[in-house]
Design a protein that fits this description.
Blueprint: E1 4-5, E2 14-16, H1 25-28, E3 34-36, E4 47-48, E5 53-57, H2 65-83, E6 91-95, H3 101-104, E7 118-119, E8 127-128, E9 132-134, H4 155-166, E10 182-186, H5 199-208, E11 212-216, H6 224-232, E12 236-240, E13 256-261, H7 266-279, E14 283-288, H8 296-300, H9 305-308, H10 310-314, H11 322-325, H12 334-355
Parallel strand pairs: 4-8, 5-6, 5-9, 6-7, 10-11, 10-12, 12-13, 13-14
Antiparallel strand pairs: 1-9, 2-3
InterPro entries: Glyco_transf_61_cat, Glycosyltransferase_61
Pfam families: Glyco_transf_61
GO molecular function, one term: pentosyltransferase activity
C-alpha cells in the first residue's frame, strides 16, 4: 500500500484510512476515515509548522503485540526511509490514538522524530504543514523489500534500529560468564488457545538438559525495556506460535528461536516468524505438533479432516482458523520433546561458548 501525498491536488477530495491492511475489512472497520481536500491558502492556521507531517492510524489490530510491529512500526520504518531523506525533520500525526501506545514505545519513537506527536483526535485547532504524507507503506508480513526503497534496507536494518533504541537496558548478566545457556520459555498465560498444558514438565526437562530457564508471560503492560533485557540476554527463545514470539526481534544474531507450530498453523508460523528469523541470522528451529499432542484430537478425533488435512478443512477461510488458533492447546510428548531439546541445547551451548566468553 502506497501512502497518499498532497502533491496531486487535482485528485482531491480523497477519502482514505491511513492503515496498511486495506483488504482486511475487520481491521479497517476500526480505522477512522480521513478526507483529504484542497483549501484556500487564506484559511487561518492555529499552528504553522515548518516540517512536513506523516499521518497514520493506531487503530485496526493495534491491541495485538504482533500487529503493533507488522502493521505500524515496520511500515513506519519503511515509510520514513522511503519518503524522507536522512536527517530530514518531520512530525508524526496519529489518528485513532491509543493513550497507552506512545508510552509503550517511548524509547523508539524519538528515533523517528524529535517533535512531539500530535494526537489528531484531540485537536481543536488547525495545523498547517508544508506537505503531508498520509498512510504507511507495507511490504508484507514482517518483511522489508530493499528493491522498493530508494536506499536499500532490510529487516536487519530495522533489527539494529530496535537494538540501538533499547541497548541501554542490556542485562548485567550479559557480562557474566555462564556455563548454562539461558532459555526463555514464552507462556500464553490465561490465553484462549495454544496454551502449553504440561508447562511444568517442559520447564523441568529443559532445566535437566542444562538450560537456565525463565518463564516469560508478557501482557499488554509489559515494558519493552523488560522484554529487551530478558530476550537480548538469552540464547534461546521457545514458544508456541503467537503474538509474544514477536519478541524474537530482540534476540542477537546466531541465537535460537524455537517455534512450536500447532496443527493448522504452518503457513502463518513460517510467514510471521520463521522466514523473518532466518533473515535476521537466527538459528531457527520448529517443533511441529503431532495430532496426539494437540487437544483437538480429543474434540474431533484423529481421523477428522481438521487434523488430517487442515488446508482442506479451512479452505483459506480465516474464520475457520479459529479452530487452530483458539480451540487448540498443546501437551508435549515429553520423550519426543526431550530428544528435540537435546539438539537445541548442543547448538545453544556452542553459540554461547563462542560468543559469551
Amino acid at each position: 500500500m502506497d501512502p497518499t501525498t498532497n502533491s496531486n491536488s487535482s485528485a482531491l477530495p480523497l477519502k482514505t484510512k491511513p492503515y496498511p491492511r486495506k483488504r482486511d475489512e475487520a481491521a479497517m472497520s476500526k480505522v477512522k476515515e480521513l478526507t483529504l481536500t484542497s483549501v484556500s491558502p487564506k484559511l487561518p492556521c492555529g499552528v504553522t509548522h515548518t516540517s512536513p507531517a506523516l499521518v497514520f492510524s493506531t487503530g485496526g489490530y493495534i491491541g495485538n503485540f504482533f500487529h503493533q510491529f507488522m502493521d505500524v512500526l515496520i511500515p513506519l520504518f519503511i515509510t520514513v526511509n522511503s519518503f524522507f531523506p536522512e536527517n530530514q525533520d518531520f512530525i508524526l500525526v496519529i489518528s485513532d490514538y491509543q493513550d497507552w501506545w506512545t508510552p509503550k514505545y517511548k524509547d523508539l519513537l524519538p528515533r523517528f522524530t524529535n517533535h512531539p506527536i500530535i494526537n489528531m483526535d484531540n485537536e481543536t485547532i488547525t495545523h498547517c504543514f508544508p506537505s503531508v504524507i498520509v498512510g504507511l507503506v507495507s511490504h508484507g508480513y514482517m518483511i522489508m523489500n530493499p528493491t522498493l526503497l530508494p536506499h536499500p534496507k532490510t529487516l536487519v536494518d530495522f533489527h539494529y534500529f530496535l537494538l540501538n533504541a533499547y541497548h541501554q537496558y542490556q542485562d548485567d548478566r550479559d557480562n557474566i560468564i555462564n556455563t548454562r545457556p539461558r532459555l526463555v520459555l514464552v507462556n500464553r498465560k490465561d490465553s484462549v488457545g495454544r496454551v502449553i498444558l504440561n508447562l511444568k514438565e517442559v520447564k523441568s526437562t529443559a532445566n535437566e538438559l542444562g538450560f537456565d530457564v525463565t518463564v516469560f508471560e508478557p501482557n499488554k503492560n509489559t515494558s519493552l525495556a523488560e522484554s529487551y533485557r530478558l530476550i537480548h540476554g538469552s540464547h534461546v527463545m521457545l514458544g508456541v506460535h503467537g503474538a509474544a514470539l514477536t519478541n524474537f526481534l530482540f534476540l542477537r544474531p546466531g541465537c535460537m528461536l524455537i517455534q512450536v507450530v500447532p496443527i493448522g498453523t504452518q503457513w502463518v508460523s513460517d510467514q510471521y516468524f520463521g522466514g523473518p528469523a532466518r533473515v535476521l541470522g537466527l538459528e531457527y528451529m520448529e517443533y511441529k505438533v503431532r495430532s496426539e499432542e494437540s487437544s483437538l484430537v480429543e474434540k474431533y478425533g484423529a481421523n477428522h479432516l481438521a487434523l488430517r488435512d487442515p488446508e482442506a478443512f479451512h479452505g483459506g477461510n480465516w474464520s475457520k482458523m479459529r479452530v487452530y488458533m483458539k480451540e487448540q492447546n498443546i501437551k508435549f510428548d515429553m520423550v519426543r520433546f526431550k530428544r528435540y531439546m537435546k539438539d537445541a541445547y548442543n547448538k545453544a551451548k556452542r553459540f554461547m561458548d563462542n560468543n559469551d566468553s
